[in-house]
Each structure stands twice: as C-alpha cells, then as structure tokens.
Amino acid sequence: MDIKASDVMKLRKMTQAGMMDCKKALVEANGDYERAKELLREKGKLIAAKRSDRETTEGAVLARTNADNTKAVLVCLGCETDFVSGTEGFQKLASDIADTAIENLPADIDALKACKVGNLTVEEAVTDQTGKSGEKHVLACYEKIEAPYVGFYIHNNKKVATIVGFSKKIADEAVKEIAMQITAMVPVSVRKEDCSQSVIDKELQIYREEVAQEGKPAAIAERIVEGKLAKFFKERTLEEQVLALGDGKQTVAQYLKGVDPEVKVIAFKRYSLSD
After folding, report:
1. Separation in Å, CA 158 to CA 153, 162, 183, 200, 233
2. Closest to 14 measured CA to CA, from 30, 34, 29
3. What pLDDT, in 10s, does the model give residues 78-119?
4. How far apart are CA 245 and CA 73, in angstroms?
5. Could you tell me the sign of the dihedral formed by the alpha carbons of 172, 177, 181, 184, in that order?
6. For residue 101, is it left (φ>0), alpha (ψ between -120 and 50) or beta?
7. pLDDT averaged over the chain?
C-alpha cells in the first residue's frame, strides 16, 4: 500500500512517534490509523522489556498542589539520558502525570499507574513514550501530603523537588524557604522525636564501631556515641538544622517562630534523581 507523507505526518501528530516508526506502522497496518497506533504501543512494550535492566538516572521531578493548598503531590518520571528528558514529549507526559496525580490523589504509585492520561492509563502512557524515544521510561516516585497548608519547591533543573505540609497557612516566601531548606539539606525527619528507630539504630551502630576502633573505655565510649548522635540530630533533623540561606546562626525552628509562633511543619517528602 502506498503511504503518503501526509498520512505519516497525521500519525506522527497523533502519537508523537518518529517519522520512520510511523511510516513502518502504517505500512504494516495497511493505512489503518488505529491499528498503526496499536503497533506503536506494542513496540513500546517490546523496547521496555528489552531495556528493563537499564538505569533511569535522568528525568523530571515535579510537584503540584490543589486550589486551596491543602493537598500536594510529588512525582518523578525517569529515563536514561538527559537528552530524552529534555524533549517536549517527555516533559509533557511528566506534567500530565503530575496533573493526574493532584486531580485524583491516588493511594499509592500502583493506583497512579492505573489512572487515565487521555485515553491511556499512566502505565500505558509511560510504555508508549518508551516506544517513541527508544529509551526505558519509569514512574520512579509518587508521594502525597495532606495538611492545613501545603507548598512545594522544584529546583530549576527539575532533578529534585520537595513538598511540605504546615499546621496553618503562612507566607509564600516562608513556604519556599522551608521547602528549599529540605531540598538542599536533606533532613531525615521534622524533629528528632519523629526520626525512625531504624535510622537511629543504624547511626548508633556506625558510631559504636568507630569508637570501638579507638579503644576507649566503655563509659567514655558511650558518652562519645551519645555526643555523635546529638550532632546527627542537629545536622539531619529539620527543626534543628541551621537555616541554609540565613546568617549561619538561626535554626529552622527559630526562623519559623519568627514567621508565626504557632506554625509547625507537619510533614515533608523529597525526591532527587541524584540520590
């Protein structure tokens, strides 16, 4: 069957697939657009299977909030190369997935994969994009927060982002300050009381092994371990951290008290393609 350039362009506009891929699909489908689209989707599944062991260290990390800033979502669409992550088709899909997440607030990442993006599920759309680019794509992260007031920060390279929930509404400038702090300084929890026991146990094991190698007496060794743990809390829990963009003296807790003595950070989620 003779496939015209206009037919190829029409399918390309419908699917965003490459010109040669569109032509081959139309030839195989005898000019049937719906069948050709199905063939392109099947190609995506085949490529995804062949490249399943590839690392997806590039991509886009995005965040969204609802209209009244009481709900926030964080999503990451991953791929293999920075080149593909910068393409219009990839960025649009990442944005569409983020929009779908905030509209539906699915329970978890599997539920998000089942949500619709246009006529496809998110999972199908990701596989479809794999076929168009020839690279592995993966929905790498989905997190959500619900709080009296929420906000987010997306770094300008879209490789890392943070969503954060507060106990009450505060100024946008303060929201950005706290979200940027979390993005840059990577705290493990809001305050030391919230730090998981597994994290504490891991740190204690490291410190005790370090001190044991120094041959200190047991009583002194334990005090050293306690001091190291206190330093860990100071450096890795949000409220005790020194404000990164401040004067080097003010902690995050002190900064928030100055903004509003009643406001507290309830929760946060952070994701980075570099971690």
Report:
1. 10, 11, 12, 31, 29
2. 34
3. 999 999 999 999 999 999 999 999 999 999 999 999 999 988
4. 25
5. positive
6. alpha
7. 89
The token pair at 109 is 């990442």
- Residues in the chain, total: 275
Q: If residue 164 lies in a helix (H) or strand (E), which one and from where to where?
A: strand 160-166
Provide the sign of the torsion angle of the four alpha carbons 128, 14, 63, 275, taken in this order.
positive
Looking up tokens 């190369």 gives 81
- Rounded CA gap, 96 and 102, in Å? 10
Alpha-carbon span 64 to 163, nearest angstrom: 8
Structure tokens at 166: 């507060």
CATH of 58-167+267-272, one of 3.40.1190.10, 3.30.479.20, 1.20.1600.10, 1.10.287.130: 3.30.479.20
142 - beta bridge partners? 75
Q: What is the CATH number of domain 5-50?
A: 1.10.8.10
Give helix 33-50 / helix 122-133 axis angle, nearest 10°.
80
Four-point Cα dihedral 89, 91, 93, 95, nearest 10: -150
- The two tokens of residue 136 are 């592995």
Within 10 angstroms of residue 9's Cβ, the number of other Cβ atoms is 12
pLDDT per position as a tens digit, 136-179:
899 999 999 999 999 999 999 999 999 999 999 999 999 999 99
Name the burial class of residue 57, with classes exposed (0-12), middle (13-18) and buried (19+) by CB atoms within 10 angstroms of its CB: middle
In the numeric block, which tokens belong to residue 45? 């599944």
Q: What are 182's two structure tokens?
A: 């979390």
Indicate the domain borders of the chain: 5-50, 58-167+267-272
Domain 5-50 and domain 58-167+267-272 have a common topology: no
